[in-house]
Amino acid sequence: MLRRIAALRPPPSPRAATYSSKSTSIPQKQQRVRDHAFDGIMEVQKRVRRFHALHSLLLYAAAPTAGSRGGGSGAVSVPFTHLGALARRQLRLAPLDAGRFLLRHAHAFHLFLHPVHRMLHARLTPRAAAALRAEAEAVAAALPSASIIRLRKLLLLAPPRRRLRLEHIHLLRRDLGLPDDFAESVIQSNPSLFRLTPDGFVEFLPVPTDPPDLTGAAVERARERHYREHRAPGSGEEDARFAFPIRFPPGFKIGKYFRIAVWKWQRLPYASPYADVSGHDLRSLEAQRRMEKRAVAAVHELLSLTVEKRTTLERLALFREALGVPKKIKEFLLKYQGIFYISTRGNQGKLHTVFLREAYYKGELLEPNEIHEARRKLEELLMISPQKANLDRMFTSMGRGWDELGGGRRGGAVLRDEFLGNGGGQKKHADTHGADSGEDSSVESLYID
Question: Of 154, 182, 143, 155, whose CA–CA distance to 311 is shortest?
């Protein structure tokens, strides 16, 4: 009986069965496709964040006595027992993680037995201190012009009042290339350009000397440059007038109708991210689509203002209302994977970093700046293999230093076997031959100021 009823039913219409696949609108929800070039950048940044966290703890632990030791942050040393306790309490690191990180990055941190206290101490190597100084000098060099323009353009992205919370800008200061004391060195030092309100907001103050292209978006300049260089005979300006540079990740499936939807979206007009659209009527579907494209342009512009064309999703969410971005910001950005990329590498999936795709090629920034180049020096230092550090010679006269490093005899034995090997099979290091010939280790020479 059931077979007869099924036979009487009309076959499903092929148009109805494939209706969703033939839709010429960009799907609201898309699966994220990984791009290993951007994920590789975040694997390096994981070490950089851990380095800065331990360096901040080192300065915090040495703060009461830093003035008496002198020599800058590179010469400050603290007992490792104190540093390890702070790392476990404030950074929530496992008992052996702090010591393991310092040993794996022996070119950045120097562990030595204090000649007076006879305790294991830790400090930065001269190369690591020089890398931090180079970044600070690059930030100071960009302060008079570039940093001020970035901050003013950031405030212009918050119409109509052109103001943002100081605490939100403070969390974004490193991405914008601003110094830690930017509230004094940038805002209060330029009262004709910025105004700090009593309730904690930073306001934009217009001046007659503002350049005419201050409200010009980066995508507009890139679009105009690309159109002039690659204009083909017979190509219309309508296709490139509101288009964004799009490059989908490897493995992203682009169907026929999805390609048509992207082509329609590229031709869709939108208002500038610097324009005040607070009074626009958004009841029509066409107006909502244009506002959504304007939100894409606003996120694109904020990422363009950053030094390395990236920031975390959590910091970007702080400016969501000012940029006009929907509440579900992650799903919103995943909808435009050809423009942005979200990497979850670096903190067990808890950290989300948003990249501007067009600014990178094979994991390299296309237009590097001095601040980025200074940060690259620290990244290269942290990526040096620990086998190139002669750890055996470093701990020759330490005595119980391994036990202090591991928080006890058992932990010290674990770290000693992990980095130097046990008696059955000792690890080979690059400087073993140099130790036998009586030459100084290339790493130990870095500790001499």
Answer: 154
Nearest to 305 by CA among 152, 134, 162, 179: 152
Render pLDDT for 370-419 as a digit per residue (tens, 0 to 9).
999 999 999 999 998 876 665 544 554 455 566 666 666 677 777 777 77
Rg value, the chain, Cα: 28
In tens, the pLDDT along 53-93 reads: 999 999 998 876 544 343 445 578 899 989 999 999 999 89
At position 173, the amino acid (one-letter code) is: R
pLDDT digits (tens, 9 = 90+) for 207-252: 988 888 888 999 998 888 777 776 655 555 666 788 899 998 888 8
Rounded CA gap, 435 and 125, in Å? Answer: 20
Threshold 0.85, pTM exceeds: no
Residue 333 CA to residue 341 CA, distance in Å, equals 8
CA 216 – CA 297 distance, rounded (Å)? 12
Q: Residue 81 and residue 239: Cα distance in Å, rounded?
A: 63
Single-letter residue type at 334: L
Distance CA 343, CA 58 (A): 29
**Backbone phi, then psi, for 196, in 5-degree steps?**
-100, 115
Q: How many residues does the chain have?
A: 449
